[in-house]
Structure formats: structure tokens, C-alpha cells
Amino acid sequence: MTQWVKQRYSKNAIAIAATVCPAAKVASQTANRFTVHRVAGMARVVRTKNVTALTKSSVVCNNQNDSQRRSRALEYMCWALALLCFLPLATAVGSRMLYASAAEQMQLAHSEVNEPAPEIARSGVATAVAGTDVKQDQSLWARTRRAAFARLTVNGLPATVAVLRIPQLQATIPVFNGATEAAMTLGAGHLSDTTALTGEGNIALSSHRDGAFRILKDVSKGDALTLTTDAGVRTFIVKKLFIVEPSEVSVLAPTPTTTLTLITCHPFYFVGNAPRRYIVQAELDDKLPTATEHRHQLSL
């Protein structure tokens, strides 16, 4: 308020002086021009500051946009590199799986055509058991394995040396002498280097994971297995389920107790040659009579 009064009286005084003295009038005009120029200069300064502030703000925004664009470009580049690295690997794996599947099907389609059916065991205490009435559930079998089975049984199922049953799973598997390809396609093969089917020791049977022994994936500890020969029926109780490498042959070693060892490849569903072996070991149930005792009871 005080400043406004001073300026007001100052302007009035200049105006009065201008009417009295021409020099004062010139001074008044000069002061007015100076005031106008000063105000214009201040306006230019203000405009310059505003332009500078806007320029700085625009630079900051541009820098932020550039940073975002660089980050997005880097992200896209990383995804592209990951895709380029993954595609060859996926292609190689897919090609290998397709090739292995085709090779396996061709092998199964042609390997058993000219192979003779397993012969009936004629030596030892295990003699032939009628196998023409043995019917297997092939619902779990691979298509190629079922086709190979059909080709080998055009004239009927050959006689067996034993019949393996898994009552809990209602499975019946014929057993043939020797772990040949034909024997393991038709059912299970008895490894001749192990204990005889009616002997006391380690009795080993082998079959394919995509055929008769795929049912082993559902076997549990405590399940009963029965092995029927001409000498009678022997019952075994499953004690162990485990996986080993193919080079692990200790599962075929003699055992102090009468043991039934079932061997197949693992995993059960695998494209190509399965890398491991699945083992089921069952011990003879001591509560039930042995084959010798069973024959003695039948003779009474």
C-alpha cells in the first residue's frame, strides 16, 4: 500500500512538473519510456524462463521415452535370443523322438516274423504245461506288441513251461523257456542261467515293458504272485520294488531264500530304448507248501 501511494504521488508530481517546465515534461516522457522498456524486458525474461522450463521438461520426457524404448528393445532382443537357442534344441529332440519311435515300430514289425516260437522245456523237473487255454489281458499292451503277438500265434499259443498269475490284478502270463524275443512277446521268458522254476533259489523271469510285464507298474508290496508248473502251484509275496541300471546283474545272483525275480525295462512308457530296468522281487510264502510237499500231498 505504501509503495502504491509513493508511485501515485510520484507520477502526479511528475505530471505537475511537466506543465510548469518543458524539461520536466521531457524527463517525464523519458521515465515513462524507461518504465515501459523495463516492463517489456521483465516480460521477455519471464517468457525466456518459461521456454527454458518447457525445454527442460521436454528433454526429460524425451530421455524417459528413450530409456523405455531401449529397455523394451533389450527385452525383445533377449526373447529373440532365447527363441533362437530353444528352436534347434526342440527340433533335435523332436527329430530324435520321431526317429526312435519309427525305428522301434519297424523293429517290432519285422524282428519277430521269421523267429521260431519258443520251444517247450524238456529237461529238468519243469515240463510242459498246457498253455492253449491261457488268455492274457492285452489292454495295456502297445499296438505294435499286440500285432507281433498276433503274428506269432496264428496257429495258437504254444505250450508253456509255467503260468504266472497276479490275482490282485487278475493278470495271467504264460512263461516260456529262455528269454528270447519271441518268448517275451508271447509272455515271459525264464532265464535259464537262474534257478529252475521248481527249484530253491532265485527264479528270474523277463518280459517287455510294452507287453506282458507292463502290468508290473501296478504291483505293490505285499501282493501275491503264483507260479504254476506241472509240479504244482507256488505262491510268492512281493517284498521289493526297485529300479537298477542295465549293467546291474546282482539281481540275478543266488538268494538264500526261494525268490521270484521279475525283470522288465523302465520307464514303462518311453520312446526308444528304455534306459533302466524295473525289478520286482517276491519271496516264497513259507506258510504254504512247497512244490515237493505239494506233490507228496497229491500222492497221498
Q: Name the average pLDDT.
A: 75
Computed Rg: 48 Å
Please count the helical segments: 5
How many extended strands?
A: 8
Task: Strand order, main sheet: write it out.
Answer: 1-2-3-4-7-8-6-5
Order of helices and strands: HHHEEHEEEEEEH
Task: Please describe what this structure looks like.
- The protein has 300 residues and is α+β, with helices and mostly antiparallel strands.
- The chain has two domains: 76 residues; 189 residues, Sortase, Chain: A, CATH 2.40.260.
- It contains five helices and eight strands.
- The protein has an eight-stranded mixed barrel with strand order 1-2-3-4-7-8-6-5.
- Helix 1 crosses helix 2.
- The longest helix is centred in the first third of the chain and has 89 residues.
Summed up:
The chain is an alpha+beta fold and 300 residues long. The chain has 5 helices and 8 strands, in the order H-H-H-E-E-H-E-E-E-E-E-E-H. Helices cover 44% and strands 19% of the residues.
Task: Note the topology.
Blueprint (H helix, E strand, L loop, with lengths): L1 H19 L1 H89 L32 H10 L9 E5 L4 E7 L3 H6 L1 E3 L11 E5 L17 E6 L2 E13 L14 E8 L9 E9 L6 H9 L1
Parallel strand pairs: 2-3, 4-7
Antiparallel strand pairs: 1-2, 1-5, 3-4, 5-6, 6-8, 7-8
Helix pairs in contact: 1-2
